[in-house]
Amino acid sequence: MKKTTILFLVFAFALAACGGTPATETPVVQSTPAPANAVIAEGHIVPAQDAVLSFQARGTVTEVAVKIGDKVEAGDVLARLGGPNDATYAGAQAELVSAQQALKSLRESADIARAKAWIVLRDAETVYEDAKDLYDDMTDGDYEYQKISYTTIRGQRVPTIETVTVENVDEDTLEDAKSDMELKKALYEEAQRVYDRLKEGPDADQLALVQARLDAASAGVAAFAVTAPFDGIVMDVNVAVGEQAGPEIWAVKIADTSAWYVETSDLTELEVVKIAVGRKVSILPDALSDANMTGVVESIAQAFTLSGGDILYRVKIKVDEIDPRVLWGMTVEITFEAME
Question: Which residues of 102-132 are buried (b: 16+ CB within 10 A; e: fewer)?
Answer without folding.
Answer: bbeebeeebeebbeebeebbeebeebbeebb
